[in-house]
Amino acid sequence: MAFRSLTDRYSVAPQLSMDDVAEAARQGFRAIVCIRPDGEQKGQPAAAEIGKATIAAGMTFESIPFQSGMLPSETDIERMKVVIRGVDGPVLGYCRSGNRAAMLWAFAEAGTLPENDIITAGQKIGIDLSPISGALKRNAAPVTDKAPGAAPGSAPGRRFDVVVIGGGAGGLSAAAGLLRRRPNLSVAIVEPSADHFYQPGWTLVGGGVFTAKQTRRSEASLIPKGAEWIRSRVEQILPGEGRVIVADGAPLSYSVLIVAAGIVLNWGGISGLEETLGRNGVTSNYRYDLAPYTWQLVQTLSRGTALFTQPPMPIKCAGAPQKALYLSCDEWRRRGVLDSITVEFDTCTPALFGVPAFVPALMNYIRDYGVDLELSSRLVSVDGTRKVATFERKGDNGPMQIERGFDMLHVVPPQIAPAFVRDSGIADPSGFVAVNPATLQHITYKNIYALGDVAGTGNAKTAAAARKQAPVVALNALATLDGKAPVYAYDGYGGCPLTVERGKIVLAEFGYGGKLMPTLPGWILDGTKPTRLAWFLKKDVMPRLYWEMLKGHEFMVKPEKIAS
Fold it and tell me: Which of 166, 332, 343, 524 lies at a 20 to 30 A Cα distance from 466?
């Protein structure tokens, strides 16, 4: 079958056969999207069958069906956006004829590509998209969106009391905390993504506990009431001028700036990795579209070699590389195939975990699962075609490189601060925002604060840390607006629920210097040991706390006041 290309990254086709799936893999497609509901026609292959063949061929599969003669729903469009923008390579969509596959692509690209380019792309492959022209116009997202209740008449380029860079956990929580305390503030949130993800849940997606859909919500639904959403990308911070330049060039002036821009996953930092992600047995729970592939690999592997890696610090959620390891081993043990699989954990760190109190319990699982633990071992390259990973390790005569064949490779990429932070004169030598570790105020520019993964602090980069940092930043930013010095301090708290098996977790909670900081008393929950209570908290309680945190609800968070 000939696949018809709308762009170099997206093509469409009529109903696929198993041979078509194999041909798509040979042509270099990285994902297949089913747009057709099951049962439309007698003898039609089920989406599950095509999906199974797609995964077996080393590609990602997504099903987003809608009926012929209907328009896709907003949810369908958002899901398609995630696939198109999240998959690293060409995507193939199919339905009965290819028309619906083209239509869904058109809606996903509305607001990104000019309407004329979308219509023309369809015409070139014999698909008329002009009948949906009006709907495309309505679906095209403006550069600036307001949350319900936002003040009318606000626009990019004017002055705000507070500009927040980043609409993730830290940025939304801090903005919501500000507006809850002072509703009349003018607050802008600069965030380009239409989707918000509960990233701590991706480990459980890769372990078959959550579905990917459970971790995603629309960004628009989470913008605090009264804040203005600037849906654009930051290109530069001018701290001396009190301005932020966004992608369209319009400057945003601020009285206080809060930087919550997160951390960048540097997939290109490992040679050959980007070319093979999502196929050839190479996966990562650090990406929304790949976490389901992790679970697919775990389910299908019955013998062979599975490698799990951890890069140099800093990284977000330093326990996540181990969580993937433990949940995979637990599933293999439940299926009775663990003894037929060689499992290896390669970590750049000199110890299994940075806080010694939690190492004994984790080492028990390393031994019980029969994991070959390689410390100070860094993944430097991946050859997906040969299924070979190359590691750099310490040798008697200096660094040496070791090649390891694999059937499954779970990769965590090295991570760096965003380029605009590194280049804007507000970064420390490591590239992250240079702040006082207690007040989270910039060491030079007193009207700048940072929190979350982008802050240059020595705490664990976790959502739990952002939950504790957000009220500190909100309160101190208000003090700055009032011409006062910061009044509250962050103690370095971070929480890392290490899922050592399905149903048990070692709940590591600690602050600066590795000081143990348990939320619950030891007689209720001993965080140094695996417990079922910690599993319940991770699976059922923490997701709810997370979504409430974004609304400015500060449960079990009491900022410490600085002694006068």
Answer: 524
> Which burial class, exposed, middle or buried, applies to 340 when counting CB atoms under 10 A from its CB (0-12, 13-18, 19+)?
exposed
Mean per-residue pLDDT, 113-125: 91
Catalytic entry in 95, 329, 348, 496: 496
Contacts for 381 with CB less than 8 Å, ≥ 6 apart: 270, 271, 272, 273, 389, 390
For residue 429, the one-letter residue type is P
CB-based burial of residue 548 (10 Å sphere; 0-12 exposed, 13-18 middle, 19+ buried)? Answer: middle
Question: What percent of the chain has a predicted confidence (pLDDT) above 90?
Answer: 75
What is 268-413's CATH superfamily?
Answer: FAD/NAD(P)-binding domain (3.50.50.60)
Q: Could you say which of 95, 317, 329, 348 is catalytic?
A: 317
Residue 496 falls in the annotated catalytic set: yes
Whether 382 and 257 have beta carbons less than 8 Å apart is answered as no
Give the Cα-Cα-Cα angle 98, 105, 223 (nearest 5 degrees): 150
Indicate the domain borders of the chain: 4-139, 159-263+417-487+552-561, 268-413
**Burial class of residue 483, CB neighbours in 10 A (0-12, 13-18, 19+):** exposed
pLDDT greater than 50 at residue 348: yes
**Options 3.40.50.2300, 3.30.40.10, 3.40.1190.20, 3.50.50.60; which CATH number does 159-263+417-487+552-561 get?**
3.50.50.60
Q: Could you tell me if residue 428 is left (phi over 0), alpha (psi between -120 and 50 degrees) or otherwise beta?
A: beta
Grade residue 298 by pLDDT with cuts at 50, 70 and 90: very high
Catalytic residue check, 317? yes
